[in-house]
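Changelog note: in this version the structure field was regenerated for every chain. One regenerated record is shown below for reference.
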Amino acid sequence: MLNYLIMYFLSKYFFNNSRNPKGLLGMSVLEFMNGFSHKELAEWALAFMEIKDGDSILDIGCGGGGNISRLLKKYPSSVVKGVDHSPISVALSKRHNAKEIKNNRCQILEGSVYSLPYDSGSFNIVTAFETVYYWPDIEKSISEVLRILKQGGSFFIINGADAEGGWVWDQYIEKMHTYTSLELETHLISSGFEEVEIIRNKDYHFLCVIAHKYNKSNNYNNN
């Protein structure tokens, strides 16, 4: 029983560090996400994400920079930027993508999703891998994503837990909320996105929610 409790609290402490990685443990969490825990999810999502080579891309909550590396490799004509509120995440992302930063294909900044350090209409694509769980004011954050997207741009939310029969981490990680696809769709529409697509892998409970920002002149009809 004592060993179980020790393991429980150690694992809880480890995974709580994923929300805002700090120190040596935070670095270990980030390397774990880069090399193992997020890889299968990212490859699943990238297989069907409609991104054109040459699109300007921002990865919010870029963590250790693993998904930035994947995007840079898959879209060699694109500039891929990243932003994260954790200083050690920014440092590790820069280290993993140093070559492309030097080649002006990548930039990584420290910043908050509530006030993204980019001009309005800066990006064709915004991605958020395993991070919206931790956004306390989800609609304010989504409104910021909408602001920095170009007309016709898309926002991809990729979660490894969909709250619809899968493992829910809320009991282990403080201030985390595992969303259903309906919750995310409701927040996205309320924040100003015009169409939302839902893609799920029910076996693994992977979830990809795609929100589109159409041209104001677009007469797109959802029906």
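Spot check on this record: The chain has eight helices and seven strands. Confidence is low (pLDDT under 50) at residues 1-11, 217-223.
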